[in-house]
Design goal:
The protein is 49% helix and 6% strand. With 168 residues, it is mainly alpha-helical. It folds into two domains: 42 residues, no CATH class; 115 residues, no CATH class. The termini are far apart. 18% of the residues are buried.
Length: 168
């Protein structure tokens, strides 16, 4: 599908390699669109979801790959808090799974929430997180914004309070 072309950049466009302009590192392959949709490695959204469930929540009666301490280190919240937030926001319009213009299902809510939590918890750049959840950096950045809005809307009334006079 992609081939190395000497002294040119190559961009994947729906299954074709298209040469781009010359650059300072000739022969390098750009994996922009193909990586975002999982075409290079052949990974589908369902496979990513399965990996997320296996790694963090257990699958088919098996315990998760990462125990509670590892989960808390990666997301900076206990698993129970993560699940409470996930259950509260998973049906919000942006985070819910939708069908795109081509009729295919887009990313699962858990992909978006895991990506957003990793960015928020670790201060990672969205393009670093995309390697695991297979979402584009722009989708991850929007997921972070929407997740934070949902958390404030959902939990703000019960957990946020005005500052006390001593705190001012």
């Amino acid at each position: 599908m992609l081939q190395r072309l000497p002294h040119t950049y190559t961009r994947c466009v729906i299954g074709k390699s298209v040469p781009m302009g010359l650059g300072c590192t000739g022969g390098r392959v750009m994996l922009d669109l193909c990586r975002a949709v999982g075409r290079i490695s052949g990974v589908t959204s369902a496979q990513v979801l399965r990996a997320i469930l296996r790694d963090y929540f257990g699958l088919n009666g098996k315990p998760p790959v990462y125990n509670e301490c590892d989960f808390e280190r990666r997301f900076r919240v206990p698993r129970s808090v993560f699940l409470r937030i996930y259950n509260a926001v998973k049906d919000r319009p942006f985070l819910a799974q939708r069908i795109n213009a081509t009729g295919r299902l887009q990313a699962y809510p858990s992909q978006k929430v895991v990506a957003a939590f990793r960015v928020i918890a670790n201060g990672e750049a969205p393009d670093r997180t995309d390697e695991y959840v297979r979402l584009s950096a722009s989708t991850i950045a929007m997921s972070v914004r929407e997740l934070l809005r949902c958390i404030v809307d959902e939990f703000g009334p019960s957990y946020l309070r005005p500052p006390t006079p001593e705190e001012l």
